[in-house]
Amino acid sequence: MKRREVLKNIGLGAGYVMVAPAVFNLLQSCKSEPKSDWEPVYLNAANGYALTKILDVILPKGDTPGASDLNLAQFIDSYMNEVAGDKQKEEFKSGANAFALSFKENFDKELVDGDDEDFEKAVAKYLGADNETRDAFVKRISETQDPDAPTADFDAHAGSYAYLSTVRDLGIWGWKNSEEVGENVMWYDPIPGAYIGCMPESDAGAGKAMSL
Question: Less CB within 10 Å around the terminal CB: N or C of the chain?
């Protein structure tokens, strides 16, 4: 099974984009002032803390807003609680717990005791793994998802890779579709003009992707 197919089957990849209209209001409801202390509604407190730290690694604040500026952790937690299907919810929570186990193994710490450097290393270990290692993770994920295959042993490292991939995909999707980024970072034209098919990319919003 190809990597994209495996990730889609466990709730990763671009499948969630199909429910964009249903989550648009939810995304915009999280655009208030960044919250340094919040209580998850779907994840437990430790996994919610880790989600915030992971997103800050993947989408750090720089010249553009970071994950915490847009409250993306709150958005993903609310999305899982209010919008996601049962299978996606189950896989996401299982992945969050797998990440907690691998974090303990890698750093001999509980999630809430982890610092920024620990989470940077954890993200790099899984999302920055070489092709061979990623392929091995996907194979393990495929084995645990195949109903016709023999029962596979739980693998916290493969689960962590799947979880971080989901968080990355949802985080980037939420970032690109937030009002702040759509209007102030991407090419935003509330009243687009005529279609010009041969316009050079450099002339189209200074090369920026258009906000939809």
Answer: C
